[in-house]
Amino acid sequence: MRRFLIVLATIVLTGALGFSAAAAPAVAPTRGGVLIVGSGTDATTLDGHLYTDAPTATIMDHITETLFELTPEGKVQPRLALSYSVAADGRTWTIRLRPGVRFHDGTPFDAEAAKFNLDRVLNPATRANWRFLIDRVTQVSVVDSSTIRLITNAPFAPLLAHLTHTGLAMQSPTAIQRLGADYARSPVGTGAFRFKEWVRGDRIALTRNDDYWGDKAFVDEVQFRVVPDDGARLAALEAGSLHVAVRVPPREIERLKGSRDVTVQLNESLRTIYAAFNVSRPPFNDKRLRQALNYSINKRAIVSSALAGTARVSDAPIAPNVEGYSKVMTYDWDNDRAEALLREAGFSRQRPLRAIFHHPSGRYIRDAEIAASIQGLARRVGIELELRTLEFGAYIALTSRPIEQNDIQMYMLGWGTVTGDADYGLYALFHSSQWPPVGFNRGFYKNPQVDALLDRGRTTVDQAERDKIYAEAMKIIMDDAAWLFLHSESQVTGFRKNVQGLIVHPSERVIATKAWLQR
Amino acid sequence: MWAYIVKRLLLTLPVIFGVAFVVFAMVRVIPGDPAQIIAGETATKDFVEAVRKDLGLDRPLLQQFASFMGNLLRGDFGRSIRSRAPVTIELAARIPNTLTLTFAGLLVAVVVGVGAGIVSAVRPYSFVDTAVMIVALAGLSMPVFWSGLMLILIFAVRLGWLPAVGTGSLAHLVLPAVTLGMATAAIIARMTRSSMLEVLRSDYIRTARAKGVGEPTVVNRHAFRNALIPVITVVGLQMGTLLSGAVLTESVFAWPGVGRLLVEGILTRDYPIVQAAVLVVALAFVVVNLVVDVLYAVVDPRIHYS
Known about the structure:
The complex is a heterodimer. Chain A is of the alpha+beta class. Chain A has helices spanning 2-17, 54-63, 111-122, 159-163, 173-179, 230-239, 253-256, 287-296, 299-306, 335-344, 367-379, 392-399, 422-430, 448-459, 463-479; strands spanning 34-39, 68-70, 76-78, 81-86, 92-97, 137-144, 147-152, 193-199, 203-208, 221-226, 244-245, 262-277, 311-313, 353-359, 383-389, 410-416, 483-496, 499-500, 503-505, 509-511, 516-517. Chain A has a domain at 271-490: Roll (Dipeptide-binding Protein, domain 3). In chain A, a hairpin with a 5-residue loop joins strand 2 (68-70) and strand 3 (76-78). In chain A, helix 8 runs antiparallel to helix 10 (335-344), helix 13 runs antiparallel to helix 14 and helix 14 (448-459) packs antiparallel against helix 15. Residues 1-23 of chain A have low confidence and may be disordered. Chain B has helices spanning 2-29, 34-39, 45-54, 61-73, 87-122, 127-141, 144-158, 170-200, 203-210, 215-243, 247-252, 258-267, 271-299. By secondary structure, chain B is mainly alpha-helical. Chain B contains 13 helices and no strands. The model of chain B has no long low-confidence stretch (mean pLDDT 84). At the A-B interface, helix 6 and helix 12 of A face helix 2, helix 3, helix 5, helix 7 and helix 12 of B.
């Protein structure tokens, strides 16, 4: 059902704007050619266990593969794994591996290789950023040459979803051992493309892996070119220097409708944008004020004007393609209610609520403009917000201070639930054990009921049951108005019209393994 | 002369040391925790602490500075915090691109700027002079992120003559070089014009004309060479600026130069990258200044160094 809804939402989104998405090909795919994708930033490292950023994940996803994969529709399915079983205690996971798979350097992908990779991530000395995804795994053992067994210290339901993460991909043990630190410049995986070259700051080129175990790619080569400037990236697409451009500025969509060569596609993302309240100190320790602010903001207007329709008003704290999502509620724009709540809390136009609102600038799509809209809308009900912005590095430091030092009142941030599972989108942000500096509950939200539900969601293996648990937790969180709920972003991607079969994944990755160039 | 050059080169050592110290201190006073930024905004506390320890950022500042200078003396810039690759590899990949773009841009600037300046100066206050100076003013006032995009729109999108962005061939160099050269050309044109005007009013020019020397010879041989000194100064200064990285031009044209590396380094608090890039830029400045000073003596025999 949820999958249907997502597809429907995409159709409505694209349909409303008068675009056709790169639909299923009507003619047979052609082989050959070089597909050039323009992205905003260069990769940081090509060691799949060490990277931290989405642009690098995009590249690694072509070279390496994970045991399980998250489909664009938000489903977890085996990839390098064949099947799995979980013991009744919910702690012992047996995973059968796909036989006959080899890394690009000829090393066989077997149970030993899988164990090597998981152990490498788990080893604290590796400094693997995504270690926390599987840090409940206490032991990885080889059962036979194509079976491994994982034991967790407690039942841990999101394990399979976490194993879909690119940061836990399988890389060649021989290459890692032979190259040491230099491995990060010549990665070896099992994927549909092999690494060719990395010209720093300019491009990364990958060639088709003709020995790939699955359906082979169509294009001979895929290049990821770094074009930092959004306007220049779009111009390069229009000039034909690129086949694909990520992050097209929303304001350009209207103009591109008339283009002969270029189409624009909207895809949902796993990223939710919100403004969190610091509920540990005045004024936002008062639930009425948090609700008042939620009612005073016309989110629909923000989405349709500032974002040119390229977002979706949040009806839950997580985005729709996340496993465990269900529609909870929206605070529909209602100034009368906002003012009534303000009066009840002792504020009025004569004695307005004053607060400082921190926001980033240039980190999320039109973040500064959105903050200004919020300021303007809040003023109409007599809430005076003072805007403050900082460079993002300093901003994160400011919002991550522990509770005693954290005097921030309200701040805008985004969260990408990159595992595609509600646990990562809710536990880290709303569980009271996750206050900074431990986790990302940066508003110091604490509700024993929510804590209990989120704990249960972790340990309940039955997905239908989990969905219910998360729905209940999200209902409490939204009623508490822990955040000013805003929207989930859409990805706006520009294509040359001859590009077919490209996948824009909700985790903000462009995947070319099934793409081809129409002659 | 040679003694002078050697003396100047030796003087660069304290300059470099000073720059190293200032950069080292500066990157550490920028707000924002580098370990947190490097680990990513979603990293756990343990991971952030592990990164901090890895990078030696938990050690006292003086100790960090001592090991930084020690490594520097051995020619070791360390590894980039973010990519974990040696800084020398990162820099070596960018320096040739920056040099190519700088010299190409400078070529455009000097040819256009000096040419326009002379044309203006020969017919001062005429229609041609006014027109050239208005164009120069426009060139100076246009921000490169706008003029660069306009050039891409015209020559890559509309006409399709040149590639829009990236590197790879001589054709890729044209648009960024012109964009970069335009602003500099405007400065050079204005400087050439005023310097030429001053020289053209001097007594020896009147004498040359009085003894019947043809106007082209007067302008090219007698006036131009004497008007060159301030122009060389300006070109030298501009070259220093270009070498330090034409960040905006590099961003618009996706040109992987030192400037972009530096800016990305600052945004990600990649200390080793920032330190090394600034040192390289400072060194370039020092060398260019020296070359300019030596050129003075070549152009004007009255200038002696000892």
